[in-house]
Design a protein that fits this description.
The complex is a heterodimer.
Chain A (H helix, E strand, L loop, with lengths): L2 E5 L3 H13 L3 E5 L5 H8 L3 E5 L7 H11 L5 E5 L15 E4 L5 H12 L5
Parallel strand pairs in A: 1-2, 1-3, 3-4, 4-5
Chain B lengths: L3 E3 L9 E7 L6 H15 L5 E7 L6 H6 L6 E6 L7 H15 L3 E4 L9 H12 L4 E5 L8 H15 L11 E4 H9 L5 H4 L3 H11 L4 E5 L11 H22 L1 H4 L9 E3 L17 H37 L8 H16 L3 H26 L4 H17 L1 H13 L1
Parallel strand pairs in B: 2-3, 2-5, 3-4, 6-8, 8-9
Antiparallel strand pairs in B: 1-4, 5-7, 6-7
Helix pairs in contact in B: 1-4, 3-6, 5-9, 5-14, 8-9, 9-13, 11-12, 11-13, 12-13, 12-15
The chains are: A alpha/beta, B alpha/beta.
Chain lengths: ~120, ~400
């Protein structure tokens, strides 16, 4: 079972994502901020991270750089309310992005694609 | 490979080696070397650095101009023998000389850039010192500046090798000592790679080597000394495209297993964008249309033979649309590229040349279609358009695999 880490400062989003993703068979863990996130990733070893871009105390794009530098191939899906973030070149270090919605069809599709991605050793 | 060498400082080791390939670049090399030296002394003051001018036996005083630059780094000059040209030969000489210096990082920067910034050296070197195998720059680009990359190199590389590297054929790179060994040990050599096919070859070998790749934000466009780029198009096109197709055969065991694609890490994200105006877009849609139409009859028989009747019919439809509503569907373009790669494999050298010559007018048609579709788009919107095209390539990779392996079985 693939383990997904959802990072979002809004509780209702963490709950929604958790419930829906668990329903389709994923193990879900959550974090409410970028605080000690790299340690959490090291400890929990998720297969994929869903990362909110705009959190109160953290910039998701900066966190994305840290994740990419330390966990080069860990899939990261950016989750955002606005798509203006794409103007920032840092966003290209993400595997995918999704616009936040109560319909998680797109997120589930992108998660499946990211987990299916295969580069031989 | 034998090369002429001048090593006035008699250095035998260097931590960082920066190579500047040249062929008659007396007018530009001094400024480029001076800025590279500034970058090395500013960002790597405690490292042993060498700048190597790898030359094609220039007759215009390139060597003298290079040695005239006062520099903190050691300067070395190496050259091919008289009458022996080709950028790839220069780079190969650089590989061999650099290997002897046992470097931690090697960087290549083209000589004819008007605006090299010292920070570019930092951005290409630092990721290598932190563990990257290959660093590819990300320059600010006009949406109509990199057609070959937009239409062929980026979508194909991404779909084949599974790594999203946006500007693979810039000619400026950073790489590790391990990557240097891989380049030196590569058995694939061709006349194309001895010339300007070397740029795409270096990126391709790195992609297939499964080394960590970093894209370095450069914060500015890369401004070349003016040259007749359109006149060079057939040669540049053939060298890049044929090198990709040649290496598809070499690395088939790798790319046949790749599914979807992944991003790379980035460096230089701290960089403030420099206010350098982008060069004007050198694109003339009417001229592109004329080129597409003019070459149509010349190659239509070849196209029908290689791509089959369905694609041939589709191409006739595209031709009949007319300039105002011209469109070259991505699906058609992708099928053509995949079919060309498959057909190319079993051909003789002269047939390969004819096949790629025949692809050029179709590429011109695809470029025109892109220009028309993105005319009113911002750079970001045009990038998203290209991203969507790349997804189509990835989604349809099973078709390429099916055709490639069918050809192999047949």
């Amino acid at each position: 079972m693939s383990k997904i880490l959802v990072v979002d400062d809004e509780e209702h989003i963490r709950l929604l994502y958790s419930e829906e993703l668990k329903e389709v068979g994923y193990e879900v863990i959550t974090a409410e901020s970028g605080y000690k996130l790299l340690e959490k990733i090291e400890e929990e070893k998720p297969d994929l991270v869903v990362l909110d871009i705009k959190m109160v105390d953290y910039n998701g794009l900066d966190i994305l750089q840290d994740i990419r530098n330390q966990f080069y191939d860990l899939p990261v899906i950016l989750s955002t309310a606005y798509d203006t973030f794409k103007e920032d070149m840092k966003s290209i270090a993400a595997d995918f992005y999704v616009v936040k919605s109560f319909d998680l069809t797109e997120l589930k599709k992108k998660i499946a694609m990211a987990l299916e991605t295969r580069l031989p050793d | 490979m034998a090369f002429y060498e001048e090593n006035p400082g008699q250095i035998a080791e260097a931590d960082i080696v920066v190579g500047i390939p040249t062929a008659n670049e007396a007018g530009t090399i001094a400024a480029t070397a001076a800025r590279i030296d500034k970058g090395l002394s500013e960002y790597f003051p405690r490292m042993r650095c060498a700048i190597i001018n790898c030359d094609n036996h220039s007759s215009d005083g390139t060597r003298e101009a290079f040695f005239s630059v006062p520099a903190s780094a050691h300067k070395l000059y190496i050259s091919t023998e008289s009458e022996v040209g080709g950028k790839g030969r220069n780079i190969r000489n650089l590989f061999e000389k650099a290997r002897g210096l046992n470097p931690k990082a090697v960087v290549i920067i083209e000589a004819d850039i008007k605006n090299v910034s010292p920070v570019w050296v930092r951005n290409l070197v630092t990721p290598v010192l932190k563990g990257a195998g290959f660093v590819c720059p990300l320059y600010e680009r006009h949406k109509y500046e990199t057609f070959l990359s937009n239409s062929i190199i980026y979508p194909l590389f991404r779909c084949l090798y599974g790594r999203r590297v946006r500007q693979c054929n810039t000619g400026d790179y950073g790489f590790s000592s391990k990557m240097l060994d891989l380049y030196l040990n590569s058995t694939h050599r061709s006349e194309l790679v001895e010339n300007s096919g070397i740029d795409i070859w270096m990126a391709n070998v790195a992609l297939a080597a499964r080394q960590p790749i970093v894209q370095a934000l450069m914060g500015a466009p890369k401004l070349h000394r003016a040259r007749g780029r359109f006149a060079d198009l057939p040669d540049l096109f053939a060298e890049a495209v044929r090198t990709i197709f040649d290496l598809m055969e070499v690395y088939q065991d790798y790319w046949l297993q790749v599914k979807w694609s992944k991003p790379t890490a980035l460096s230089g994200t701290d960089l403030q964008e420099v206010e350098t105006p982008l060069p004007p877009a050198d694109v003339n849609p009417e001229r592109l249309y004329e080129k597409f139409i003019d070459d149509f009859d010349k190659y239509s028989r070849l196209w029908e033979h290689v791509y089959g009747p369905i694609t041939a019919r589709k191409l006739q439809e595209i031709r009949s649309i007319g300039f105002q509503h011209f469109s070259f569907p991505t699906q058609t373009w992708m099928t053509i590229l995949f079919d060309t790669a498959v057909a190319y494999r079993g051909m003789s050298p002269s047939e390969k040349k004819d096949l790629v010559d025949g692809l050029l007018p179709l590429y011109v048609g695809k470029v025109l279609s892109y220009v028309k579709k993105t005319w009113r788009m911002s750079l970001q919107q045009a990038e998203e358009y290209i991203e969507n095209e790349c997804m189509m390539f990835e989604e349809n990779k099973p078709y390429l695999i099916k055709m490639w392996t069918k050809e192999e079985r047949g």
